[in-house]
Write a structure and sequence with these properties.
The chain is 13% helix and 30% strand. The chain contains two helices and ten strands. It has helices at 86-98, 159-169; strands at 9-10, 39-49, 55-62, 73-74, 77-79, 101-102, 105-114, 119-127, 130-131, 142-145. Strands 1, 2, 3, 4, 5, 7, 8 and 10 form an eight-stranded mixed β-sheet that branches. Strands 6-9 form a two-stranded antiparallel sheet. Strand 7 (105-114) and strand 8 (119-127) form a beta hairpin. The two termini are 20 Å apart. This is 8-oxo-dGTP diphosphatase. One of its GO terms (molecular function) is 8-oxo-7,8-dihydrodeoxyguanosine triphosphate pyrophosphatase activity. It catalyses: 8-oxo-dGTP + H2O = 8-oxo-dGMP + diphosphate + H(+); 8-oxo-GTP + H2O = 8-oxo-GMP + diphosphate + H(+). Belongs to the Nudix hydrolase family.
Length: 178
Amino acid sequence: MSDVSPAPALVSAPASAPVSAPASAPAPAAPWPEDRIPVDVAVGVLVRRTPDGQEGEFLLTSRPEGKVYAGYWEYPGGKLEQGETVEQALRRELQEELGITIGPAHPWKVEMMDYPHARVRLHFCKVFDWEGEFEMREQQAMAWQTLPVQVQPVLPGTIPVLRWFAEERGHTGPTHVG
């Protein structure tokens, strides 16, 4: 018997769907059954610039022990608290988890994932500027990656982002190993 939960169902609009709410606005409510109301999550896609200004490596972190999908790799972030905007939640979460203060958060994509334990609405924001030294405050690991991603296993909610990067960057072939 496996300890791994079944893969979640992807239940949102296509990957090209724009962010439905600006990062400065509270997350929209949706009419879901009471037991499957989506949890809004702000996700930071931290991207290093290359010397010529292009988008380069991006940061993945592992989920800490004690959390669902512990050891899986994902983009850092966390749940919005009552009354928070996506950008406010992202700033708070990246300070709490990584010890950094981010510059502007650029809303990029929104994806809905239906995991066995929760339905989540992932608000992906690209972040190009930050201050501070990275501290893995939840004892997670971090890795700067390019396509194809070499760390594994990759959280199912991360896979659409890798596909979006592949489309933007003209990458052909697999987006991740495993």
